[in-house]
Amino acid sequence: MERTPSLDTLNKVGQEVRLKGWVRLVRDHGKVMFVDIRDYSGVVQVVFVAGMLSDEQVALIKGLHGEDVVEIIGTAQQRKPGTENADMPTGTVEVFGKELTVLQKAAELPFDMGGKDLNLELPTLLDNRSLTLRHPKVQAVFKVQEIIVDSFRNALKEKGFTEFIAPALVPLPTEGGAEVFKVNYFDKTVYLGQSPQFYKQIMVGVFERAFTVGKVYRAEPSVTTRHLTEYLSLDAEFGFIENYEEIMDMAEHVISRIFDDLNEKGAEYLKLYQASVPKFSKPIPRIKLSEAKEVIFNETGRDIRSEPDLDPQGERDIYAWAQKEYGSELIFVTHYPTVKRPFYTYPDPENPEETLSFDLIGRGVEWVTGGRRINEYGQLLESAKKWGNEPKDLEIYLQAFKYGMPPEGGFALGVERITMNVLGLKNVREASAFPRDMELTVLITVLYFIKPDILGDYPDMLLQRIGLTEDKDTASVFEKQIGKPQDLNLLVYKELEKFEKQAPESYSSWNMRKDMFLARVVSVDKKKKQMVINISIPTGRSFSGKDMSVKIDCESEDSAALAPYSLAHLKSNIEVTAEAVEQDSIYSYCLNEKCSEIGRKCVLVKNLP
Fold first, then answer.
1. pTM here?
2. Of 84, 104, 124, which residue sits at a domain end?
3. Confidence band of 522 (pLDDT split at 50, 70, 90)
């Protein structure tokens, strides 16, 4: 007998079926036992009646637990009225089990996998990724991503685009503002691609309309709820544009198609998260960055008009305004400053200080970035030089423009961030099957900076007081048996508080620079009560922000982030509401052990720029 996928039992009522899959849930009611079986097509309920089975079979079934791999032979039948399960696609049928074979016994699970939800802290979710990915609600995240990627492809193919594969190793960085990963390539230095930008522009000269789907890498030393060092980027580029607004029109076409497909093909996955696709007016509202900053000032009183970009709060503010004015959860912000865009971005002829570029803000978060590119060879060459690039390093790229390139532009969107935003996930790592960030999976972070030339030997004193000694001849990695995570946090806090009282002038003159002392907890083993702490002096990046940085974290490990704020902020004990805690740039921390409660005395913090 051929195997029957779970979903096909809907069409096999009255017929004998052979199921193979994993045990999702066992409900033992004595004489009647229910076993939910999961396979690639879904989940179906199997009913076993003890009186119709051998003692050996009954013992086998009663010994089952989650993730056991089994084979079942039985008969598909309609469920009795009133026993249907509307939450399951197969909820109108069940299988009357006759015989069960255990193909592979699973180890005892570390947590319950049979519930509708998987209520785990983020570190637990990621540390057990091979297991947690099997849960239907977690699976749904990646079913949604599959729809997003397929929709992107189909929407562009309908418009005559051709897909190509961009290289992951590139000879030089493509995005001026992003850090890069260096790779030793046969005694030469190359980089993991920050974007396929150069290659998709080259392909405009080949196919006129081109797109690519691939991983990109950003070596940004940040740990926030919406950034990854490796993510899936969907990139499109096309030529013979009349104006840069055609690029936004194309991006809107793609986004609209994604939403339509999610509603049509992904309704069951959205339902699991009680989620819906964003509402937006057609066309999506468009506003210049300078005008957006004026709107934010007028609406909130917060003055960011001198800033070259929108900060996370600014993105939320302009989103709120778009909702109020247009009933739209999406808005294009255009005309970013030349200094904030790469050298290939086309300057606005009416104001060369601005560019014909845009970001699409979705529900308060940047979704899409794009714009028109410089297509005239001489202009592009001069812009590249102005930005400090050597023409010889850009030879293959410039060659495409030297031999004729029409007016062109394009855009890119990050799959994980859109997935997170649509489903309402709290952390972008939940939207990556195998997330990559500064520590691969972040558990708890304790961060503080000290300027050595002001403090003298104070860093050594501080380390000694919390039970650590600095080893300058090694990579400065320390391991120490300690108690609860809060113990170290409080020790750091107390020592910094002492120093503020002892040397207030020095304290107030601290400045965050690349020569500052850095301590970061990179892993926590609760069973062993052990932390691994990295002690280092950053040399590749200058930090900017408040005078000093201390992070007091607690049991809520999934909220870990690099968060600079002054000691005065720690003392202010600002009340943080549940709504505020969910926002991207606001996290809650406390100095007591009641870390699961909202409304406790906490501190208000913002991300590193």
1. 0.74
2. 104
3. very low
